[in-house]
Amino acid sequence: MYVPLVSSMSLVKASPSTEDCEAISGIPLKGLHGKDELIWAANKNGKYSVRSCYQMLSPHVENRQAWTRVWKLNLPPKMKTFFWQVCTDCLPSKERLLQRRVSVWPVCSTCGVDRESTLHVFQDCVLAKEVWWSQNKSFLQVGATTFAAWADAVKGRCSKEELEQFVLICWSLWKSRNDKLWKNISTFWRGVVARGETMLAGWKEARVQQSDWKASSGGERGGGDGTQGKWQPPGAGVVKINVDAAVHSHGDWRGLGLVARNDKGSFIAGRSVRERGRFSVSTTEALAIREAVLWAAQAGWAEVIIESDALSVVQRIADSDGISYEDNIFAEIRHMIARFANLNVHYVQ
């Protein structure tokens, strides 16, 4: 629904719809004149993309928190991607291939008894049952009709370490299935478990070696590049403005804080702003930078450095061609920066 910008909060609050009131108050007003545009709200740059549409329509949105937990597991990326494929029934089991009209023998190559579905490979096959009975009994889910339902139960009741073990064994079971199908190599349950553990141990050892190499060669980013650590004064004649923003978690208020210091590190001035508006954190951080640019222009500072701890906002100010509400703010900031002799926006931790 298109909602025109309204500058009077009293008119906005007169709306009988709380949802509309919150939506309107969350639109940052532009300081520059510009035309109204239709935007795609599912993408932060306001432009339509297939990826954003897929994410919006995905049937797994309600499980996003659970999947965030999966992506943070201490496992190789290929294992986590594999687990997602299993849960979304994307693996080429014989049953799935038949559904796609691929001519294959439907019986499981491992047990040679039952029809090979995704759930059969990981739960009902003789090899799978032997593996799971040797492991944590919390993995056993009686009566699951799909792998996704079984995985949801495991994700909901297992610890992080147990979930890692579950994903690891599933990955190794699929490897065993492929070995039997394509190489006619049979694997006993001990071999399934051992292969997964060996692969994971090698991956973790490689990560430790990589970390040690970075530490010894200076590969990790240090404070010397000005992105973290102690505050550094700017060059001669330059004013540095540090900005920060906060959004009230239970209200419609936002707060901006700005501090300006000279090349000797001495305090020049400070400014704080508290306004109504249900803005996102990134929008509020962008408004803080815009406030700093306006402040610098009003004060007559020609050479300025603005520092913010919002990396994505700083990056989008430098390079953004979107049409969203936030992109309008970024365009306005770039327009104002062009009027300065020297003004730069930097990210700082």
TrEMBL record:
Residue stretches making up the Reverse transcriptase zinc-binding domain: 48-132
Domain RNase H type-1: 242-348
InterPro entries attached to this UniProt entry: RNase_H-like_dom_plant, RNase_H-like_EbsB-rel, RNaseH-like_sf, RNaseH_domain, RNaseH_sf, RVT-Znf
Disordered as annotated region, ranges: 210-233
GO function term, MF aspect, one: nucleic acid binding
Protein name: Reverse transcriptase zinc-binding domain-containing protein
Organism this protein belongs to: Cuscuta epithymum
